[in-house]
Amino acid sequence: MQVQIIMAGRRSRVEKCNLCGTQQWVPYETQIFKCGKCRAIIQLPKNDKDHWLKVHDSVYPGLRFRNVVETAISAGRKRAVLCGVTYKNSKWQLKGSVNDVKCMQYLLAEKFSFPKDSILILTEEEKDPVRIPTIKNIRMAMRWLVEGVQRGDSLVFYFSGHGSNVPDFCNDEVDGFNETLCPVDYRTAGMIIDDEINATIVRPLPKGAYLHAIVDACHSGTILDLQHVYRPSQDSSREGRDGEWEYQECRSGVYKGTSGGLAISISACGDSQTSVDTTAFTGNVPTGALTYSLIQAVEKESRITYGRLIHSMRNAIREARKGMHQNAGSTISPFVNKLRPPFSQEPQLSSSERFDVSKKEFVL
């Protein structure tokens, strides 16, 4: 039997976790919540009869729920989804994806003060089946990420794994291809295309809310289908000050922007490029080139602009490629081959709106 109460000026109900059986209070209208005990993501059946509650609900400042679910409705909250896919026991297996997730988790918690309970991790090492990065679980995690998003919220979507592209039959893409993310079960369940990612986590963003997507995968340049792509100056000494924003036209006319919020994507490479996980940076621990260079740049400078960040990441990858060539002798490593033209990896910045990259500080 479902119990209802009014709590903090907001109607709430008791729901039971499908996995551990714990009962807990959740906002009445929520469709997805995270269990306060086992941290599983639970999707509830939709109840259309209660649609009117969404219109009248409100949150009173200073009053909080007794459960972790309160983070779903608290303005100014931080929330992140971190996906690392290794594709174990396949010829496409990656070695650095789980390391990447652990590094990003540490960065979010220590540098940007993300609460531990607000970070949802999906890797093949998780014991909870809901946290394995299947296409179903990643989709559910993306919906959870934007559940109840409000002004002042800061959201992060991170993915380390394989990316690909497929023909675009909707006439959205200038190059004729949709960019995709590959879940662990992509060979049987399919891939997640950029159109779906945009519709799920970009378009719902309200005014005053922020989303950062950090995607360490091949062909990820416009993985969020954002309208503006930043093109840095070819002069590496200019730190992006002479770069310019390029407008990405959606030929079908479908709206690809937000509902007033700001969405920013930092991706490993251009849509036509490939990215790698490698030990070139650490010497022994495999990591994604984008992930490692981003974390290093942020840790070196306490206050770094987007222009400096992109500049630092690109330089780090260039220097790694240069060093590997010099040290390789007559034997060229797979990492060097991956980074040689036309497969040179250049991190990309895109956004739902233009801004001054030399002045805007990178903050999550």
Automatic annotation (TrEMBL):
Transmembrane segments: none annotated. GO terms for biological process: proteolysis. GO terms for molecular function: cysteine-type endopeptidase activity. Residues 77-352 form the Peptidase C14 caspase domain. One of its GO terms (cellular component) is cytoplasm. InterPro entries: Metacaspase, Pept_C14_caspase. Pfam families: Peptidase_C14 (PF00656). Belongs to the peptidase C14B family. This is Peptidase C14 caspase domain-containing protein. It comes from Carya illinoinensis.
